[in-house]
Design a protein that fits this description.
Distance between the termini of chain A: 45 Å
Number of helices of chain B: 8
Mean pLDDT of chain B: 90
Oligomer: heterodimer
Strand order of the largest sheet of chain A: 1-2
Radius of gyration of chain B: 24 Å
Largest sheet of chain B: 6 strands, mixed
Structural class of chain A: mainly alpha
Order of helices and strands of chain B: EEEHEEEHHHEHEHEEHHEEEEEEEEEE
Helix content of chain B: 10-25%
Shape of chain A: globular
Largest sheet of chain A: 2 strands, antiparallel
Structural class of chain B: alpha+beta
Helix content of chain A: over 70%
Chain lengths: 294, 361
């Protein structure tokens, strides 16, 4: 780091150095917790496997080729499908809710926001187990329905794809609500009046003014739900049973049970690259769409 | 008589305990430039929003071009608004902003193009078509707001303090432009402002509002020369309100006394002998004499002199009362000089001393 000495004050640091200094803690954080592990995973993914899962540092593409098995591709496809559906459901619930929330009086809004955030104070695992208690065959919902005489046999609410979807939507809903709420709260409602004044019916004002102006919130929310739900393994593991393995479970299994770190790393890298490409395409399309409008 | 374009019939609007519009009756003719003038919080913007349809009246009805629109939402009314904040769509270009209203009406795209280009030319916005509102100056944004509203060819254009955010010079310039535009297009303009100079210079008629009440509706000249009450006299232009007492009345002519001196003034109304009143005399109508004139006059002392270019304003203390007079710079008296004040009968407007609210309608 270059420390420039000023004539008046020998402790003055140049602005470039100041900028670098401020970036230092964040930089170390990113380096130690993101770049280094990712580099390690990248190296493992090209390494060969020893007899008992030990890592032999010799280049091979075997791990990637192994992934091309229809079984794994199917898991990958299912994971993408499930996270996209999760994202869409979250969006469909969150947008009307955020719209409703933003219309509340300013004093009651923080209370509702608090209600959204409170579940985060409980461990995610515990909240997932709470869902199991609710949904299982002898669970609260089934027992209540039987007591009320609405059903005679317990419904199978757990250990299927729908249960996983429910768990994912529940877990990620706040990540969709909060950014959308933030963008709606910033919205200048006089613009909606202007749209009405210029002849827009309410739905036209929504499509032409509210939606485009809250697009940053929608995008942020979708990314915050889509990306982590792709790699999620706790919910499918606990609520989905064996039949609904997702890419997250696959990777976790390779590292923990199968002791095949090389293959697990390759699967991780494939997932990361796919997400990265997905985002790149999204930004391209968004940029193109923006220019097209002009 | 021209057709009535906008009619308010006994319109009331309350916000909790605050009365924003109190039994409003008003008729605005086709092609008229009508201005609501009043201090902030007097209900003028509320009235405009009632006409635009953003809020519904508690009672009474509103007609636009002969049709009752009281229950209609804004998008079904043939009026457009120029907002105080301009409310331009930040995600759209200037061209798209101006085209917005026409697109909502689903006009053929060729017509939209032609009309948008006309509007851009009319408001002098050439070259800014592809910019976003955030990249424009306040004056340019103001022009876009006017273009966006006028391109829809509304029957009535509503303007809510459209020049409030501009500097004085630009304000004067756009005032002249707006007035010219209104005359050329023949569109009915309903304008809201708290700037009395703006109201006087632009309007065909002015409605002075206070506490949700339309205090006086008249031409700018009538408002200035024949204010209905002390509120109007004080709010529109500067005036001296001498607290006097009625001695007698003969038709329009009223004899009165102030600080023991006899003066006279005029009014259309009937006053009782001994009734406390105000005489409103504009500063430019206060006559000053160095020596005692051969009529009843007030002896005062020049307390302050305020020079403002073409004229000099003098604050003259007469007993406890502070009178304001205007003179040419070369006729100004020195500070501390003794001076005799009086006014011509026709310049003393006699006004009742009660509050402004109870005597309208």
């Amino acid at each position: 780091m270059s420390v420039m000495r000023d004539r008046q004050n020998p402790f003055t640091i140049s602005t470039t150095a100041q900028a670098l200094l401020t970036l230092l803690p964040g930089g170390i954080w990113m380096l130690a917790l993101l770049v280094a592990p990712l580099g390690l995973i990248l190296v493992y993914s090209f390494a060969q496997r020893g007899a008992y899962g030990s890592i032999i540092y010799a280049f091979t593409l075997e791990n990637y080729l192994y992934f091309m098995d229809p079984l794994y591709l199917k898991i990958l496809g299912r994971s993408f499908k499930l996270s996209i559906v999760t994202t869409i459901i979250c969006l469909l619930i969150s947008y009307p809710f955020a719209l409703w929330l933003v219309k509340r009086c300013p004093r009651s809004r923080p209370i509702f926001l608090l209600l959204i955030v409170i579940p985060f104070w409980t461990n995610f695992l515990i909240r997932t187990y709470a869902w199991i208690i609710l949904l299982r065959t002898e669970g609260i919902i089934n027992n209540a329905l039987i007591k009320l005489g609405l059903i005679s046999q317990p419904l199978s609410l757990l250990y299927n794809q729908e249960a996983v979807l429910l768990g994912l939507v529940y877990g990620f809903l706040p990540f969709m609500i909060l950014p959308i709420y933030a963008s709606l709260e910033k919205l200048d409602w006089r613009l909606i009046e202007a749209a009405y004044d210029l002849g827009s019916k309410p739905w036209q004002a929504f499509v032409k003014v509210i939606l485009p102006l809250t697009m940053p919130g929608i995008t942020a929310g979708c990314l915050l739900v889509l990306v982590p739900s792709l790699g999620m393994f706790i919910i499918p593991d606990l609520m989905g049973g064996a039949k609904t393995a997702l890419i997250g479970n696959l990777i976790q299994n390779q590292f923990m049970a199968a002791r095949n770190w090389q293959f697990g790393s390759a699967a991780s890298i494939i997932l990361t690259v796919l997400v990265f490409f997905g985002l790149a395409i999204y930004w391209r399309v968004a940029k193109w769409a923006k220019q097209e409008v002009l | 008589m021209l057709a009535m374009m906008v009619e308010l019939i006994n319109v009331c609007k309350k916000y909790g305990q605050t009365v924003a519009a109190h039994n409003l009756f008003l008729q605005v003719a086709e092609g008229e430039f009508f201005t609501f003038l009043g201090p902030s919080g007097c209900g003028k913007t509320t009235t405009l929003r009632l006409i635009a349809g953003f809020i519904k009246p508690d009672s009474g009805s509103i007609k636009i071009d002969g049709q009752v629109v009281t229950g209609l939402p804004p998008y079904l009314r043939d009026v457009n608004t120029v907002f105080q904040s301009y409310a331009l769509f930040p995600h759209l270009t200037i061209q798209q902003n101006i085209a917005f209203g026409l697109e909502m009406r689903r006009l053929p795209s060729h017509d939209i193009k032609v009309r948008v280009n006309q509007a851009i030319e009319m408001m002098g916005l050439e070259g800014l078509e592809q910019r976003k509102p955030g990249e424009l100056s306040g004056g340019q944004q103001q022009r876009v707001a006017v273009a966006r509203a006028l391109v829809c060819r509304p029957r009535v254009l509503l303007l809510d303090e459209p020049l409030g955010a501009l500097d004085v010079k630009l304000k004067r310039q756009i005032q002249i432009e707006l007035k010219g535009l209104q005359r050329r297009l023949g569109t009915t303009f309903i304008y809201v402002t708290h700037d009395q100079e703006e109201a006087l210079s632009m309007s065909d008629r002015i409605g002075v509002m206070n506490d949700g009440v339309l205090v006086q509706v008249a031409t700018p000249m009538e408002i200035y020369d024949m204010p209905m009450n002390s509120f109007v006299a004080d709010f529109v232009g500067e005036t001296n309100l001498f607290p006097a007492t009625v001695l007698g009345q003969q038709g329009n002519l009223i004899e009165l006394t102030f600080l023991g001196k006899r003066f006279s003034g005029i009014s259309q109304r009937v006053f009782q002998m001994g009734q406390p009143i105000y005489v409103s005399v504009r500063p430019e109508h206060i006559r000053l004499n160095n020596t005692s004139p051969d009529r009843e006059s007030l002896l005062g002392r020049v307390q302050d002199i305020i020079f403002s270019g073409s004229q000099v304003k003098m604050v003259i203390s007469v007993g406890d009362f502070k009178a304001v007079a205007i003179a040419k710079p070369e006729e100004a008296l020195p500070q501390g000089a003794e001076v005799f004040l009086f006014w011509e009968t026709r310049h003393g407007i006699v006004l009742a001393r009660e509050g402004s609210g109870s005597q309208c309608l």
